[in-house]
Amino acid sequence: MPEESEGLSSSPAAAGMVRKFVEHWGMMARAWGINATMGELFALLYITDDDWTAEDLRAWLKVSRGNVSMNLRELLAWGVVRKSHRAGERRELFHAEPDVWTLFRRILTERKRRELDPTLTVLDGLVQLSEDVPELKELRARVEPLRQFFGMIDGLSVRLMALESRDIIELGQIFAMDDAGAEPSGPENDKSDAST
Q1: pLDDT, tens only, 156-165
Q2: Facing residues of 81 across strands?
Q3: CA distance to 40, 92, 142, per residue, from 57 (Å)
């Protein structure tokens, strides 16, 4: 662990929490079709909020240098990890993007580009192909609802990616429910009697 993270390594509870967080992100990455090491690298950088060298990351995760290098390049390409240098040092340092909304937007953008856009292209092509071939009418009836659904998801993702962090806070307040689950929480909806 980097020197800045000594507190985590000296506290068994904190070290256990870090380990659990990192392992969970590795499992989630596999479920999303992403390399497990990529998920673990990001999780470790994010949860510790420290600058790490590639060698420190390799030693903590107990993986090969090549694995760390390849996955750091991918995380840098996604824009969820930044690289920096300290004055007088040659080593590259890596740090996770700290803003959760920025992270979500970058991940959503990348997943849209890699998964949603190609799916829409295939569905659009199939619908277009079926328009001129009467025998494909039944197949088109199966594909068209999928195209509409993925088109709706695409439109939603574009709108989400256009929002700024402050917009998300406002959106969260709109969706926030009080303990009864009936109305948004906040001072404007406080039912207590202010006159007493």
Answers
A1: 888 888 887 7
A2: 96
A3: 10, 12, 48
pTM of the complete model: 0.69
pLDDT in tens, 62-71: 999 999 999 9
How far is it, in rounded angstroms, from Cα 83 to Cα 170?
Answer: 32
**Token pair 């040092």 in the structure block, residue:** 89
Q: Looking up tokens 């030693």, which residue turns up?
A: 59
Per-residue tokens: 55 = 């060698």
186 contacts 173 by C-beta, under 8 angstroms = yes
Question: Which stretches of the chain are DSSP H helices?
Answer: 6-10, 12-31, 36-48, 54-61, 65-78, 100-111, 117-131, 137-162, 165-175
Q: What gap in Å lies between CA 123 and CA 147, rounded to an integer?
A: 6
pLDDT tens readout for residues 170-185: 777 777 754 445 554 4
Could you tell me the CA-to-CA distances from 48 to 38, 89, 98, 153 in Å, in that order?
Answer: 16, 21, 11, 33
